[in-house]
Design a protein that fits this description.
mainly alpha; Recoverin, domain 1
């Protein structure tokens, strides 16, 4: 019998290693004076890490073309191949880049520059807050029929 891990167990270990790497990057951002004024920085970094891990489809620690495509489709904002390449270039810092690293992602989300991807993700976050407001049973209907 083959002793190598397969399936879910291997995937869990892979994701655990990936999360450890992203936590290390988060710690660097927490200790960086440039981001000292960011409100709720630790909470935001944890939220960004979860979102990033969800769309890192190649498990190499970056979001490539397919991961970005999936992210935007899930948000209901389908983009063409050319638009996706432009977004990656804008966030990653150059047309030769083919993926968004976690550091690039955090720099975009925490920075002052408004990249297209940042605006889309911020809009998605705002719409989720609005949806949560209407939680609970529907109001009782009253009949005004004679």
């Amino acid at each position: 019998m083959d002793n190598r891990m397969q399936g879910g167990k291997a995937y869990g270990i892979l994701k655990s290693h990936q999360e450890d790497k992203l936590n290390t990057i988060n710690e660097a951002f927490l200790s960086d004076d440039q981001y000292a004024e960011v409100e709720d920085l630790a909470f935001k970094l944890d939220m960004f890490k979860k979102k990033y891990m969800e769309f890192d489809l190649n498990d190499k620690g970056d979001i490539g073309m397919m991961g970005l495509k999936r992210m935007l489709e899930k948000l209901g904002v389908a983009k063409t191949h050319l638009e996706l390449k432009k977004m990656i270039s804008e966030v990653a810092g150059g047309p030769s880049k083919e993926a968004i690293s976690y550091t690039d992602f955090l720099t975009m989300m925490l920075g002052q520059k408004n990249a297209i991807l940042k605006l889309i993700l911020m809009f998605e976050g705002m719409s989720k807050k609005e949806e949560r407001r209407d939680v609970g049973p529907p109001a009782r209907k009253t009949s005004e029929l004679p």
